[in-house]
Amino acid sequence: QSALTQPASVSGSPGQSITISCTGTTSDVGAYNYVSWYQQHPGKAPRLMIYDVSKRPSGVSNRFSGSRSGNTASLTISGLQAEDGADYYCCSYAGSGTFVVFGGGTKLTVL
Amino acid sequence: QLQLQESGPGLVKPSETLSLTCAVSGGSISSSNYYWGWIRQPPGKGLEWIGSIFYSGSTYYSPSLKSRLTISVDTSKNQFSLKLSSVTAADTAVYYCTRHAALRSPFDPWGQGTLVTVSS
After folding, report:
1. Measured between alpha carbons, how far is B8 from B114 in angstroms, rounded to an integer?
2. Residues 81-120 of B with CB under 8 A from A
3. In b/e form, how buried is each residue of A19-28, taking b as 16+ CB within 10 angstroms?
4. What is the pLDDT of residue B30?
5. CB contact set of A25 (below 8 Å; sequence gap of 6+)
6. What CA–CA distance (Å, rounded) separates A73 from A89?
7. Which residue ranges of chain B lie beneath pLDDT 70?
8. For residues B28 and B75, what is the distance between their CA atoms, to the nearest angstrom?
């Protein structure tokens, strides 16, 4: 069982927006501004999409955005495109001792 | 551009030790203050952080794997390694190596991953 809770699946039509939630605790998501999000296509390595809750690495579309409220972080993808269909994982720093925790992953289907 | 490449046996017997190496190219493993990490993904399941090592040799392990885990760095070969002892079928996974600037920092880039199956 993963430390962070994500919905197993979400779906949306091209052009729409979707949001994936990632719920943790006051020891991880709620405690630090160090939540990241990864996109993973089948058979590929994960790709960093968001870091430090809401920052986008160079090369990542501005259709991807991140936010956090309390113990829940969220990834929003606007203007859905077919190539956005993938698994998405959240990750949070969890302090000394535990260090890093991941969510169980969310499968995004673009209808 | 930094690149990471995992290598090691694809099949390990139960109770034996799983050993993997990550070769780093496009940059020196010891020239900058980075952490080098391992993450795994069982077939059809999610990601799990295994542990990380600072370029100087300090290690940080997942509490659930700490008793079986050793991560080391070989600066002369520009690579770092993972050893996981007493493996069981539950350790079957794709193992990725990666880099991060601090324990709190995101993982980027990643190696392509290597599948390790634990079976007799």
Report:
1. 8
2. 96, 103-108, 110-113
3. ebbbbbeebb
4. 85
5. A71
6. 11
7. none
8. 8
